[in-house]
Amino acid sequence: NTSSTIGRASSAIFGAGSLGTLGTYASLGMSAYSGRLQGDAEMQQARNAEIQARQARANAERERIKYRAEELERRKKYISDLSSSRALMAKYGYTMQSPSANAVLRKNRETYMLDQNAIRMTGIDQVLQQSTQAQVLQGEAGQLRKSARKAPFMAVGRNIQNQFQTLRERAATRKIGGN
Description:
By secondary structure, this protein is mainly alpha-helical. Helices cover 91% and strands 0% of the residues. The chain is rod-shaped and about 115 Å long. The two termini are 30 Å apart. The chain is built from three helices and no strands.
């Protein structure tokens, strides 16, 4: 019977039939206050983690923009080099079908593609790193919020558990002492 168990437990902690001791109530109040302070501290940590997560997401976006800009700059350089190469070839009488001209253009394109891939892979790696960090921080913030909501109740529960332990020890001591 749950209600009788709760009644016996409250009688044991608060004193049988009386209002209980002032120390018991003060102890419970201090536990609740301590739990609230701990909860407030964890909520602040959660807010800090959320701020850091937003910063990490912003950093990821900056990295994405940065590597895209680098890709565009490299593309502009390739197009400029291609135009210069074609102009030089025309100046010296080479045609696009010339094996040497074709080899130079093919090599330039290959270098451009390798550069583009390197820029893209480095950029994607940095974006993923920042995005992962944002997700981890967001998860930590959620755990801290959950813990913060439970903190006052957990503190009071620990206090009640400690008081039960004290009562058990007193009863055992009385039993052993013969009182």
